[in-house]
Amino acid sequence: MPYTKRRRLVRSAVALVLGTTALAACGTESGDSEGGSGPVSLTYWTWTPGMDKVVDLWNKGPGKEDQITVTVKKQASGDTLITKILTAHKAGKAPDLVQAEYQALPTLVSNDALADISENVGDAESSFADGVWQQTTLGTDAVYAVPQDIGPMMFFYREDLFKQYGLSVPTTWDEFAETARELKKAAPDKDLTTFSASDSGLFAGLAQQAGAKWWTTSGDQWKVSIDDPATRKVAKFWGGLVKEGAIDNQPMYTPSWNKALNTGKQIAWVSAVWAPGTLTTAAPDTKGKWAMAPLPQWSAAENRTGSWGGSSTAVTTDSEHQRAAAKFAAWLNTDSEALNALAKESGIYPAAKNAQTSGAFLKPPAYFSNQADFYAKAADIAETTAPSAWGPNVNVAYTTFKDAFGAAAKNKSDFGAALSEMQADTVADMKKQGFEVAR
Amino acid sequence: MKSTARRESYGVKRAPYAFLLPATILFALFFALPIGYAVWLSFHKVKVSGLGLGSGARREVWAGPENYTDALTDSELVHGALRVLGYGCIVVPVMLGLALLFALMLDTEKVRLAPLTRLAIFLPYAVPGVMAALLWGFLYLPDVSPFYFVLDRLGLPQPDLLDGGPLYLALSNIAVWGGTGFNMIVIYTSLQAIPAEVYEAARLDGASPLQIALRIKIPMVAPSLVLTFFFSIIATLQVFNEPTTLKPLTNSVSTTWSPLMKVHRDAFGDGDTHSAAAQAVIIAIATLLLSFGFLRAANRRQKQEAAR
């Protein structure tokens, strides 16, 4: 009996010691030594599926020559990763490379988490549309990331049901509203689409199309114009449709929403180039019945779209091998072999212009096999993307959007008031943090 | 001889500390230190200068009680607390009432399949909270729920469970479904501990089973009831899983529905760990005050009754 007791004690003591060494190991982990020569190993945080296979191409090809090995660490997408990067950066241990959505770049830059890689990736600029590239410079001479994928917005609709109800594809937002009303008249239990407050990026993209520039700088001051005439126009438009009951007001990405798309209860979706992927899982039974068209315009003479989603590859200030990391980031997003692999393995829509109409993008996505020129059309639309203007607290504006517009959609009340709330909260947060805010 | 004895006694004196050491170290590292850090954070804030771009534009400065005054005057936090109060007023009585009822029923003499029934009532407790909320979420959505299908077929009204007042019922239902079994086991265990002589004496005095339940069983398991009430209050104040999981399904649950959700949003959505830390400290203090205040009141009452 005493023997077993002692043995148990010894065992737990060993476990404790092991535990503390594991802790110590966590604490002393550090990067490789400084220097341009010699083998370099980099860590890359990304949520893109299949990225490890694309990185394998680098590690076996150009990376092997330059002795730069990249290791992928799969992460959760979006805001969660931003928080994680900032926390790691606070401890000085952010990975060498990170994936970041365009709207998150100012937040990361303002926390001094991203390195200026203009010297190493400046040549890449010509591969991208101006509006896309500008998002990685934040309007400065610095370059904080290399664009990876983009999400130009488009209008997706059920071709068969549009024909059945005698609807025509709207080219302006006025026509869009008319279409919604006509459908309600023809089939009262159906909706053209829904206004969802669950994804702020959609609203931001719609405002961007209307010409909104939410964050701008002049001198040493930020100007926040979320409640500007362009955005107000968008908010009033959707608020009006919800109020009169022409469209639904329930959130997207719920089991109900999937069912509505799959059964034709909702017959259109304002979305972006990545929609085929979402529709494949949300509405599998309606494959081949959808078609894509450009986003409706605010006036017939215009031809613009917004973006919803899209991300970039950035190098952190904590990286001890920023040049090597930048080299990889440029390869990943401009090299044709890499872009082909990204399209094949990860299904992303590339930001690099020449990749949008080559390789995997010569054929339409399987879900849209009925629309042979899907990607040719998409590339044309992508070129019309309006410039965007992100600020250092997009996250705050986005969370306020979800709550304020969620409540307004539920109550079918004034979207203008919700927009004012979004503006006020965003400005208040910036002032609280100490940013110089104009007006 | 003498010296070894002294050494031995010295070693024995030190032994308790040596045994305590691992627990103390773990407590300090993983409990005291993080709490201390949270308190430290709550008294600081970020100060940005100018555009806030580039290095050195962001500093962490002393904020004093600023984060606390902001939190206490924040109407969203107060509204969240009120929502949780409303939710708690449904959850705690219903859950404990059902738990007591089930425990008493299982404890009666003529009960068939008692072990199976006990397991069936307890089983939902083994389902993780997020899973339970997801599961119920599906059942609450009119378009995918079999309940609504049946209601529709029968031509009965179909209430919207994810809005207004019914939302509280929907949320409470998840908590009651998951928590009743655990509380029932606690009460049932203490019912089992009551000596059989007590019942025998009662029966000899002519007490009916109902009278035994009301006059003997319930007073004798009062300490367990106090304990389960105490746990339930804490669980209610920390409600997070259910509303967070239902949030994407409806416009009616905001990101700040409960105080803990607001802490989560501020820290991980808005990136303001400092004010989130202050709110977390406030919630922790409120929880401590409420739960221990209740325990004290309950104990005082029991002592008074014992003295009578």
Measure the end-to-end span of chain A: 78 Å
The most extensive contact between chains is:
A-B, 52 and 37 residues
**Oligomerization state:** heterodimer
Overall shape of chain A? globular
Determine and state the CATH class of the largest domain in chain A. Alpha Beta
Distance between the termini of chain B: 59 Å
Mean pLDDT of chain A: 89
The whole-angstrom Rg of chain A is 24 Å
Overview of this structure, please?
Chain A: This is Sugar ABC transporter substrate-binding protein. Chain A: It holds the Pfam family SBP_bac_1. Chain A: InterPro entries: Bact_solute-bd_prot1, SBP. Chain A: Keywords: Cell membrane, Lipoprotein, Membrane, Palmitate, Signal. Chain B: Its main location: membrane. The complex is a heterodimer of chains A (439) and B (308). Chain A is an alpha+beta fold and 439 residues long. Chain A has 2 domains: 170 residues, Periplasmic binding protein-like II (D-Maltodextrin-Binding Protein, domain 2, 3-Layer(aba) Sandwich); 199 residues, D-Maltodextrin-Binding Protein, domain 2, CATH 3.40.190.10. Chain A has 18 helices and 9 strands. In chain A, the strands form 2 sheets. In chain A, strands 1, 2, 3, 4, 7, 8 and 9 form a 7-stranded mixed β-sheet that branches. A two-stranded antiparallel ribbon of chain A has the order 5-6. In chain A, a hairpin with a 2-residue loop joins strand 5 and strand 6. Chain A is globular, with a radius of gyration of 24 Å. The N terminus of chain A is likely disordered. Chain B is mainly alpha-helical and 308 residues long. Chain B folds into 2 domains: 61 residues, no CATH class; 234 residues, MetI-like (MetI-like fold). In chain B, 76% of the residues lie in helices and 3% in strands. Chain B contains 13 helices and 2 strands, in the order αββαααααααααααα. The radius of gyration of chain B is 26 Å and the shape is globular. Chains A and B meet through helix 1, helix 4, helix 5, helix 12 and helix 17 of A and strand 1 and helix 12 of B.
